[in-house]
Specification:
Length: 245
């Protein structure tokens, strides 16, 4: 490996799979229904039923219940070897580093990562639909919960729904443009804009590496793909990259 200086790491659901959190295509491999069933029971829901602004407006009880269940599940899981290795990289890497996660769990920060962006929001945060305030939130979040900042009964899960703008895109795009190494871990490469970061990184001259259980949708865009468990591949890659520093 050439000696990189500026690194961007993109993570997806696969990095948390070995902690026990289901990915979005866990069983059938076709839809997101499997994971929704994991949290809401055997009736099948479409992703549009729980992950769009229209769903929140149409059935807020169902949408809040889905994210309440996922928030509650965080209490029973812990960071795995991949999160721990990335936190070690964060602490030790002398150059620029940004870990961009699509995950709404808090396992990267519980492992100790600080140079971290949650581009799709956070389960342990509430967003006021009236004033835009975001604040840490634990426990269930019933529809109509009152925002402490503005008093409106408008708190919602702080999740970026399909059709909404991910957080901190300007910061992420600047980091990707400056990166000389872009590494994608545990993501199917199916959801934009994150799925396009590899092309952007390559356009600006970065080397690109994919660490995933299987080839992702954008696999051919990467210079190198390593297939296997994140809990094995990520610690090995972190040691490799730290050895270049
Ligand atoms: P994904 O489930 O689509 O893909 C996970 C990837 O990780 C797969 O390619 C899989 O092969 C791989 N993987 C599984 N286990 C692994 C392991 N142990 N080690 C390494 N790789 C492993 O998840 P994604 O790519 O993160 O999904 C993209 C985004 O879609 C999500 O971040 C989310 O924002 C969005 N989404 C949200 C909802 C919602 O309810 N809010 C629903 C569906 C999708």
């Amino acid at each position: 490996m050439n000696k990189p200086r500026n690194i961007v790491v993109l993570t997806g659901a696969g990095v948390s799979a070995e902690s026990g959190l289901p990915t979005f295509r866990s069983k059938s491999g076709v839809t997101y229904w499997d994971v929704i069933e994991d949290y809401l029971g055997p009736k099948s829901y479409r992703v549009e039923d729980v992950c769009t602004p229209e769903a929140l407006a149409g059935d807020p009880v169902l949408v809040h219940r889905f994210y309440d269940a996922r928030r509650a599940a965080l209490a029973g899981v812990a960071p795995n070897a991949a999160h721990i290795a990335l936190a070690r990289l964060d602490a030790a890497w002398p150059g620029e580093l940004l870990i961009v996660t699509q995950n709404v769990d808090d396992l990267h920060e519980r492992a100790g990562a600080t140079r971290l962006v949650h581009m799709h929001g956070e389960l342990r945060s509430a967003l006021c639909a009236a004033c835009g305030a975001r604040r840490p939130h634990a426990g269930d979040l019933p529809p109509g919960s009152v925002c402490p900042a503005c008093g409106a009964p408008a708190l919602r899960p702080d999740i970026v729904f399909f059709g909404e703008m991910p957080y901190q895109m300007a910061r992420i795009e600047a980091a990707v443009a400056d990166a000389d190494l872009f590494v994608s871990i545990g993501t199917s490469g199916a959801v934009y804009p994150a799925a396009g970061f590899v092309q952007m990184a390559a356009h600006y001259g970065a080397a690109t590496l994919e660490l995933n259980l299987e080839r992702s949708a954008g696999s051919s865009s990467f210079d190198e793909t390593r297939l296997g468990l994140a809990g094995v591949l990520v610690p090995a890659w972190v040691e490799e990259v730290l050895a270049t520093g």
